[in-house]
Amino acid sequence: GEFLYYVMPFVEGESLRDRLARGELPVTDALRIMAEVADALANAHAHNVVHRDIKPDTILLSGRHALVADFGVAKAVSEAAGQSAMTTAGVALGTPAYMAPEQAMADPHLDHRVDIYALGVVGYEMLAGHPLFAATTAQALLAAHATQDPEPLERTRPGVPPALAAVIHRCLAKRPADRWQQASDLL
After folding, report:
1. Cα 172 → chain centroid
2. How many CA atoms lie within 13 A of 165 on its CB side?
3. How far apart are CA 84 and CA 28, in angstroms?
4. How far apart (Å, rounded) are the C-alpha atoms in residues 180 and 150?
5. In Å, how far are 39, 80, 119, 132, 162 from 98, measured between CA atoms?
6. What is the DSSP string of 111-131?
7. Reported pTM
8. Is 14 helix (H, G, I), strand (E, B) or coil?
9. How many CB atoms lie within 10 A of CB 6?
10. Per-residue pLDDT tens digits for 91-124
11. Which residues is 60 bridged to in the sheet?
12. Where are the beta strands (DSSP E) in 20-170?
């Protein structure tokens, strides 16, 4: 008989989530990880793939390099239609703590800029040592992403260079048009 099997590479190392459990990262490490994830996203986006679930659990640290894993909720963008049907029947897919406002509101026209927002959330957490918003329920987290302004990173951790804080805060813009438009621009 025939059978199908799925192969995944074994990545030696730890997730960014495991690393964050030990506290905030040095600025140089956080910057390197953000750049490597932005590079991976630029490649995915160039192939019309939006990850939609960027978070510390899907970023693996192997040796001195960050890898993006688990494209499980990624969905290829339909070029033929000229727009993407990224959400079905108003259901938001992703992880609430890292979800862009438009993703939290189950906007049917999501694009790659949700990944840029999520990377901003991850960058903030790497530097601040705590999540962007401290809500206790998924609904409260989604509402916070849609309506609350984050505490300025320079106030949370004064040692972060102002230029880096500005880059991360631009990723976190509520409106997709106000964020970095391409992961390659962010990079």
Report:
1. 10
2. 14
3. 36
4. 17
5. 19, 29, 8, 9, 23
6. -THHHHHHHHHHHHHHHHSS-
7. 0.86
8. strand
9. 4
10. 456 789 999 999 888 888 889 999 999 999 999 9
11. 15, 67
12. 49-50, 59-62, 65-68, 75-76
